[in-house]
Amino acid sequence: MTGDSIDLFGDKACPEAPGRVVPVLVPMPADKAYSYRVPDGMAIQPGSIVQVPLGPRQVAGVVWDTTDGPAVDPKKLKSITQVFDCPPLSQDMRAFLDWVAAYTLSPPGLVARMALRVPAAFDPEPMVEGLRLTDRRPDRMTPARTRVVETAADGLFWTRSGLAHAAGVSTSVVEGLRSQGVFETAFMPPPPVVAAPDADYAVTELEEIQREAADTLIASAAQKTFSVSLIDGVTGSGKTEVYFEAIAETLRQGRQVLILLPEIALTAAFLDRFEKRFGAKPAEWHSDLAPRTREKVWRQVTEGGVRVVAGARSALFLPFEDLGLIIVDEEHDPAYKQEDRVFYNARDMAVVRARLGDFPVVLVSATPSVESRVNGEVGRYRPIHLRTRFGAAAMPDLGLIDMRRHPPERGGFLSPVLLSAIGKAVEKGEQALLFLNRRGYAPLTLCRVCGHRFQCPNCSSWLVEHRFRNQIQCHHCGYAERTPEACPECGTFDHLVACGPGVERIAEEVDRHFPQARTIVLSSDLMGVKRLRLELEAIAKGEADIVVGTQLVAKGHNFPMMTCVGIVDADIGLANGDPRAAERTFQLLSQVTGRAGRTGLKSRGLLQTYQPQHPVMQAIVSGDAEAFYEREIGERERAVLPPFGRLASVIVSADTRTDAETHARGLRQAAPQVSGITVLGPAEAALAVVRGRHRFRLLVHGRRNSDMQAFMRAMIAAGPKVRGSVSVQLDIDPQSFL
Ligand code: ADP
Ligand code: ZN
Question: Which part of the chain is the Helicase ATP-binding domain (predicted)?
Fold first, then answer.
């Protein structure tokens, strides 16, 4: 243990004190750390992970930094029960957790909880029993025994089964040798979850523009100080190859690297690619990991054994031993925003973490968020442009299909123009992708006779038909029932009609037109992550002709034979009252059409739209992203929307509509008068009821330099007490307005 605990907790000042008192942050929605006594002889320091009594329970917590609070009588306090044999959370990490809590207006305990998700990993991993060759040799040598002895002659520790396997013998041969003293047993550290990456394993020869970009990143990595770079480059331009160079440089410095990816569970291809470059896979971190793996990864990240983590947004809260670089790939992706308990944007918090830790961060996107673009333009971020695709790969030839002029046949959703393009691709033995961001068969079911619409009993939303499962489901609360045969309202049989398309319905239409083609539907509700990974691999190998998918097909996959991409409903999402609607549509559509033509083959992207003149559509087909950004940035600036202004949401929910509304009105009345900040609402949320909870929203709008947190804190403090079923959620920098 280091000696700094003595100074920090004032032991020197009063050596005769009956016991030291330290704050411990427990992973609960507590506003601050609680005070605990340190038993005599217990060595702790700020950041130590400890066990403390809390009510009737024992919980894990972190020794926090002392602040000048009211003096407490140590005799009245409970004592820390034990210190875990685990590296303490670093000063940077503690500062980061405090910062996130203050910024998002979340209880610090809940933020700390995100760093302490894996209590089983607080104890060291058990040592593994191993064997080592001694000087003794068996009385009688056999060829099998000779092989074992030769294999183990390197003097290293071997597990019994590992040695047997390596020598190609059964474990009984190894055991026989051990019993004769040829091997001694010893305990060795547990094996690493992933092998160490090698910065120089298979260096890629970069093109000139890529080389320049990489050199800029390497230089910033070499400086080992805070900087933000924004790689803005078209899909297939080699952004990944370029940031791999920054990773290599950081590995050479002996520091750790975190790569954030929006959909890690689906990015098997990324892991393979990393392995090809660095000779070993990065450790993965996401919600789908097996518990044992999770524990190992957490532990080995804190001890420094794991050098590179590729993870979902929650990986940002891993307590790295010596983090030296963060990459945020697809930085514009909405999946980086968590809207549950602690509302945070991992992209923004990654920048904060880098600033507090004083190391570089690299944001990467083919379609950066407007916020990051502006930060690049004003010089807060260093923009790095890659405007052309690597090698022979050309951008797909993009076109709009005006649905008013080329309508689908009755009951269908695919225009003859799109169908003919799909047909041509399939004939040539190439692949087609149809994209529609709607799961299920149809978004609405109604009775043709009485007009009854099937609505969720818990939410204000329609039930979505999932024909493959023969269910109608709510996409907000998971409610599901068998698709009824008769209308519950008028009792008529066989008169229910599906309204509008989902991916399943599009697949049905495709099957009708191309009965010989192999069609796959990719949708997160149809299969688990493992299955999805297999399907994606199969598609990449050409084992499907036509793929119909939701947005998960948009993310980072490389399908070499994909030469035709059709967007079934490009207008979806353009008119939903979200200030980022145009930006989101632009990003998603660019990303999907970017799936096409990633090899030398000529490829097409077609967007079905009823608004061909819309600036988003025009920006995509003209390939003039710059014009789109310029226009979008201008509009944001005029409306003082982010990043030129600031937003925060308050979502009040309760079991009854009246309770929710009354509380929301009370908050509105309690809002302080601050120049530059206005409160809009309360208004009933667009999603008025979710899981039986009635919802009202307030939107707080401020200028760029407004102190939104102070305003919100003041409003909550002066507002009505949260009582009964009421709950209040605060969302700083909201992404969703439903
Ligand atoms: P992005 O991340 O911009 O979409 P990638 O880094 O994935 O682009 O590159 C697209 C494809 O081109 C990948 O298959 C990649 O391996 C290949 N590629 C890019 N640059 C090079 C290079 N300099 N040498 C070899 N292959 C490259
Ligand atoms: Zn529901």
Answer: 220-386
Residue 19 structural domain: 14-116
Following CA atoms 307, 310, 313, 314 in sequence, which dihedral angle do they give, to the nearest 10 degrees?
Answer: -50
- 168 DSSP assignment: T
In this structure, are 695 and 603 located in the same domain?
Answer: no
Exposed, middle or buried, 145 (CB in 10 Å: 0-12/13-18/19+)?
Answer: buried
Q: What is the phi-psi region of residue 341: left when phi exceeds 0, alpha when psi lies from -120 to 50, beta otherwise?
A: left
262 CB contacts (<8 Å, ≥6 apart)? 312, 313, 329, 330, 333, 335, 336, 555
Tell me the helix, strand and coil percentages in the chain, rounded to 5.
35, 25, 40
Q: What is the mean pLDDT of residues 484-501?
A: 90
Question: Which pLDDT belongs to residue 16?
Answer: 40
Report whether pLDDT(13) > 50: no
User: H-helix or E-strand containing 646?
Assistant: strand 645-654
Which residue's CA is the closest to the ligand 1 atom numbered 11? Answer: 236
Name the β-bridge partners of 522: 549
Predicted confidence (pLDDT) per residue in 109-132, tens digit: 999 999 998 999 999 988 888 888
561 in the same domain as 510: yes
CB of 645 closer than 6 A to ligand 1?
no
The residue among 730, 726, 725 whose CA lies nearest residue 698 is 730
Q: What residues have CB less than 8 Å from 579, skipping those under 6 apart?
A: 636, 639, 641, 642, 647, 737
Q: Are 599 and 591 spatial neighbours (Cβ–Cβ below 8 Å)?
A: no
Neighbouring CB atoms inside 10 A of 39's CB total 14
Q: How confident is the model at residue 9 (pLDDT cuts 50, 70, 90)?
A: very low
Kind of pairing between the strands at 49-54 and 57-63? antiparallel
- CA distances 518 to 46, 561, 605, 656, Å, are 60, 14, 20, 50
**Which of 264-278, 574-588, 710-724 reaches the highest mean pLDDT?**
710-724
The number of domains in the chain is: 6
Pocket probe mutation, ligand 1, options 271, 363, 390, max atoms within 8 Å of Cβ: 390
Q: At 661, which CATH number? A: 3.30.70.600
Q: Which atom of ligand 1 is nearest to the CA of 207?
A: 23
Query: Ligand 1 within 6 A of 204 CB?
Result: yes
In this structure, what token pair is assigned to residue 404? Answer: 């008013």
Whether pLDDT at 159 is above 80:
yes
The confidence score (pLDDT) of residue 530 equals: 79
CB of 239 closer than 6 angstroms to any ligand 1 atom: yes
| Residue % of the chain over a pLDDT of 70 | 95
Nearest-angstrom CA–CA distance, 601 and 379: 38
- Give the domain CATH number at 595: 3.40.50.300
Query: Would you call 362 exposed, middle or buried from its count of C-beta atoms within 10 A (0-12, 13-18, 19+)?
Result: buried
User: Residue 78: which CATH number?
Assistant: 3.40.1440.60
Residues 6+ away with beta carbon under 8 Å from 223: 360
Query: Does residue 69 have a pLDDT over 70?
Result: no
667 within domain boundaries:
yes
The pLDDT value given to residue 15? 41
Are 429 and 472 contained in the same domain? no
Cβ atoms < 10 Å from Cβ of 41:
5
